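Lecture notes, structural biology module. Today: joint structure prediction for complexes of two components.
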Amino acid sequence: MAEPTPKTRGVTVLLEGIRKSYEGVPVLRGVDLEVAAGEILAIVGQSGTGKSVLLRQIIGLERPDAGRITVGGVELQRYLAMSPEEKPFRIGMVFQSAALLASLTVAENVSLRLRERGRHSPAEVAAITRHALQQVELAGTEEKLPSELSGGMRKRASIARALAIEPELILYDEPTADLDPILTEEIGRLIARIRTTRGATQIIVTHNLPLARSVADRIAVLAEGRIAECIPPRELGASRHPLTREFVRASGLGA
Amino acid sequence: MAVEAMGHRLSPQGFLGRLGAGLLDVLQVLGEATLLFVATLRAVPAALHDRARVGTQIVRVGTDTLWIGGLLALFVGMVLVVQTADQIENVGQDILGPIVGLAMTKELGPVLMAFLLAGRAGSAMAAELGSMTVYDEINALRTMDIDPVRFLVMPRFIAATVTLPILVLYADFIGVWGGAAVVAVDPAITLPVRSYFARMFEWVHFRDILIGMTKALVFGMVASIVPCTFGLRTKGGAEGIAASTTSAVVWSFILILVWDFVIVRLTFGLD
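The predicted structure, tokenised, for the full assembly:
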């Protein structure tokens, strides 16, 4: 059986005036953002500023109070209402906690959606799973339970689960939270490799500025519920925005 | 992921405010449980494809409840005989069989097994789903276009609903034989075992067993839907999971008793 062929496509993401409040407290106050197909965008900001909330709006786990989200030219609510078979593209998400199902093995976690859809033969599912695990360098862990993996391995297994559905858009919620610098670098390399091999659009929510700078095409700074600025990493040092400057200084990336 | 704003809740002031908030909370839980029940019923046909998951849950619910259920039923049957014999000195001991038989089949078997299922398997369901909710596993399923109701709730619902009637029959059997054992060996009881069973079969009809089975079916639904509801509405970390688990068991007990009364009232006077 041939290995699954790498995809080289991504989808655009367009956010217009996204607002979200919880019990009257505004978290997102009008987020406008455009992500090009195949682009890697990092969203940085202080803890509690709504970075993860923004990600949840993009994948449809929560609905914004106002504003419009368009992914791949399709309005998000219309996309969500489609049956899995109708959907013109797929969105994968890597959660901060990895969110692997504790009762399933690594292979079962990675192949879960494929098995549930039932459109692939068991041999195909096994091949796709193996390929996804090889991509994240977790070959040989198929029969392990998530509890038997280290934090970094769990994150990579979670990325493999996202990759197994061959997504055109991958969202990462703090992919390097609780990881040491070596594992952080490893995740960064993996994200960069996914762009090379698959070309998927990737949006990374993180407060790890070195990671954002090393992998992203652009870095969006979220402050006070809005995108304060969205700049290429090379312009970080020249930014005049106080939060960006503070981030650069605190991350030790300054001159 | 935590957003500080999400932690801000308006806390109602005064007795009436707290009472109102409490009532609203009760209505919300009942509403969510009803919606989950309807969604689960819609997902039941998918059980044909999910036989392995349903089977796993049936085994889990059964093994959680079987031994302790048997022990409970045995002692309840034994206590029932001794306690009744003590109370009916002047009436005659031949009523022991009908009392144990009717009490076990119509009331104690279904209610005790339902309590046991809610306390053992139900609390495990609430804790498991609560943990999955808190750690984003439920959201992960949603992002993979996998319906958590079909994937997680429906197998547990079917397992509890199918298993409880079987457990009740098993408990009835053990309870009745527990009573018979006491009748046979306790010197204070002069009734022959043969008469104990003969009088029981005179009084306990198929209809009584059917009422017990109806209760078991309804209680099985309650003892799975309520814990799953609390599991899926869990917020916070370990503390939230613990609170959900406790609430799930308490609410299951209360709703089992409410439905017990409803069924008893509806079947009152039925021949």
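Point to remember: The helical segments of chain B are 14-43, 51-87, 96-134, 137-143, 148-185, 193-203, 206-232, 238-266.
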